[in-house]
Amino acid sequence: MATLPYPALTPSATDFTSGGAIYIASAATELPPATAIEDAIRDGRYTQESADIAGYSGVTIAKESSTILDLASAAALSATARSTVPNTDIRSVIFVSIFPFTHPALYNLPAAIAETVRVPCAFATQISNASCAAGIDGLVMAGHRLLLTDDRAALVVAADLWREPHIDRFNCNPNFIFADGAAAVVLSRDGGYARLLSAATLTDPTLSGLHAEVPSDRTPIDVTARARAFFETVMDPDEAHARLNAAFTATVDAALSLAGVRLADVAYALLPAVGRSFLERYLDILDLPISRTTWDYYATTSHIGPGDQFSALTHLIDHDRCAGGDVILLIAEGVGFQFSVAVLQVQ
User: How far apart are the C-alpha atoms of 223 and 220, rounded to whole Å?
Assistant: First the structure.
């Protein structure tokens, strides 16, 4: 199946060491209690076949009374409390949430988060593009604002709730389960846990149809049916996977190159919390062992969406798994098709 010619794809990369140091001052996570996968299987919500593919042991599920603002505000409050940055220095609040059905209508969630945290932000905005790469995109946006303004600090919060009847978290794709949760980071000019060295992003619009809506009676959102329709009518699977792999590699290489870091020097690669089968695809491309990821943590939470990398970073900090000088690679991918990568160095 032929595809129309398209411009060559080149990552957009930023050297965050060029305008004064920017740091991740703190990170925090707000997760509901986890439901055991074996309980979901017993209750008929999840199949053993999918469980064997994804490999999770638990999934975090919020109470029906919990709101997206509850989760986001809790993560934001925790991140600012952990940071030595005065709240009055936080001039940007960027909120990331990709599943729209649990958002209150005509309500400014980032401004509400800013009010809860009591920060006098001049810039409060939300990223809602259905891409799980949006958390790293928010980090990049916040970093750019610090490079271009006199602001001292910024807050980035990612949160999502995945609820029926809009989605069946267990059965939209056998490779992952969507989990409820929130995570936040504070960026600062004045020091912190890790320095932000570089970032790169790349979108391949020719693959946007991979997630185009198609009729399905199986579940409200059927990611598998969408991909199948794309491969049958738009692009051969081999070509699509070749484009995905090339975009992924190019984005990682661009971020590492600007940071002056080799992949072999990376202590941890914080990948999306997709299931074990998807994770192994990344690891095969990167030639990294699973021990240099946070799969042991992700297996207990499942995929909270754009907050995965911030949540994993919190886990590394809380469990003292890194030493000064260690390089941490944040890697995200999302529908669109988009890849976003950031490079940190622990101080």
Answer: 10
Residue type, 48: Q
- Say how many Å lie between the first and final Cα of the chain, rounded: 50
Tokens of 208: 């946007």
- Read off the tokens for 184: 């936040």
Residue 120: asked if its preceding bond is cis (omega within 30°), the reply is no
Q: What are the phi and psi torsion angles at 258 (to 5°)?
A: -65, -35
Q: What's the rounded Cα separation, in Å, for the pair 133 and 269? A: 15
Confidence of residue 20 (pLDDT cuts 50, 70, 90): confident
Cα dihedral across residues 281, 53, 315, 303: positive or negative: positive
Q: Model's pTM, two decimal places?
A: 0.96
CB 160 within 8 A of CB 100: no
Can you list the pairs that 122-127 forms with residues at least 24 positions away whose Cβ atoms lie under 8 Å?
122/91, 122/92, 122/151, 123/91, 123/92, 123/93, 124/92, 124/93, 124/94, 124/95, 125/93, 125/94, 125/95, 126/94, 126/95, 126/96, 126/97, 127/94, 127/95, 127/96, 127/97, 127/306
The first and second tokens of residue 126, run together, are 């939300």
The CA-atom distances, in angstroms, between 274 and each of 48, 62, 69, 109, 168 are 17, 19, 24, 27, 16
SS3 314: helix
State the pLDDT at residue 6.
67
CB within 8 Å of 154: residues ≥ 6 apart: 90, 91, 92, 93, 94, 142, 143, 145, 146, 186, 187
Query: Mean pLDDT across the stretch 61-72?
Result: 97
pLDDT, tens digit, 9 for 90 and up, residues 252-276: 999 999 999 999 999 999 999 999 9
Tell me if residue 245 falls in helix, strand or coil. helix
Matching residue, tokens 């810039």 = 123
Specify the pLDDT at position 15.
96
Asked if 258 contacts 13 with a C-beta cutoff of 8 angstroms, the reply is yes
Q: What average pLDDT score do residues 280-305 get? A: 96
